Amino acid sequence: MKLLIRLLAIVVIFLLFQVYQEWTSVPSSPLSGSDTVHDPEPTDEIESDQEGNSQPEKELEGIFQYMDKPVANLLKDYGEPSRVDPSPYGYQWWIYDQDPNTYFQVGVEANKIVTVYALGPKVNVEPYKIGQPLEDIYRSTMLTTELVIDHEMGSYQFELTEEDLNIRPLVEMGDLYVQLYIDKVAGNLSSVRLMNKDVLIRQRPYELLYRGELLEVKEPTEEEWVEIAEAAEKQVLSITNAMRHKFNLNSLEWDDETSEVAFKHSEDMALNNFFDHESPNSGDLGDRLAEGNIFFNAAGENIAAHYLDAPAAMEGWLNSEGHRKTMLEPDFTHLGVGVYEKYYTQNFLEKDWE
After folding, report:
1. Given 3-state DSSP classes, what are the helix, strand and coil percentages for the chain, each rounded to the nearest 5?
2. From-to residues of CATH 3.40.33.10 in the chain
3. 26-35+221-350: which CATH topology?
4. What predicted TM-score, i.e. pTM, was given to this entire model?
5. CB 307 within 8 A of CB 89
6. At residue 267, does pLDDT exceed 90?
7. pLDDT tens digits, 13-62
């Protein structure tokens, strides 16, 4: 009888160990950004006579109507943002995350709105609509792989890959350019990013050929990178919850201790030149959480690198099967986020206690 009890105890311990390993093992492959700053190539062969990737010019509506106008216009209609975040691109992000249904953020430079990122399904992004089926977009918008911008500093030709066309095509709207983030799993429009010429050329989210001078942004100082990374962490939490809201899932609570664990992993990857869930210095997610004395029922991790910013990283995770599954896991209750320059780590936890 005693032998049987011992054998049953060993089996139970083994099964518990397997469950722990399953939830703290790598949930998905590392994700390196396609939506990243590309190295441009000078050329003498740019033709600006093009068709496609454009919308007929008309007066902008909804949130887009504030583009290239004083931010006072937005303040009059929407009030103060919940916070103002720095970015590495010369503008500040004004974050409107009070309601996941109306989530948007605008980039403000010299008191003027120069870019908009909109995710909430109730944000007016005419002529598009968040959640709009892909077939509707394809019927109304011609998409091509090349888009030429004439600027006072030169000519700039963006070249989109087939993957770009499938998940983040670029469309010309007069003097503005809208990036359509496609949710390829749901088959609809996840979010949009509107930019003026200067922002698009400075960020270079696609392959770029240019003639003339290249628009550059001053590299942030070490102190500025710390502030930018802390702001990106908050944006990752806000956007994660806005995305979960679309799928009728609970919002996640911020967890300070887990965020510290996530930050150390992002910093470790950046400083030691590797990109993986398992660190040669601190082990896997289970090891890192144990080292941080963090208790949980279940845990998962997403990592990403070299994306333009938090919105781009979030859209990348959404379109990657393993990362999406982790981000949209119904049982998770808490989130820790750590960003070091352009390395991102999300650590998800399920807790049934506080």
Report:
1. 35, 25, 40
2. 26-35+221-350, 41-212
3. Pathogenesis-related Protein p14a (3.40.33)
4. 0.86
5. no
6. yes
7. 333 333 333 333 334 455 555 555 555 655 545 454 444 555 555 678 89
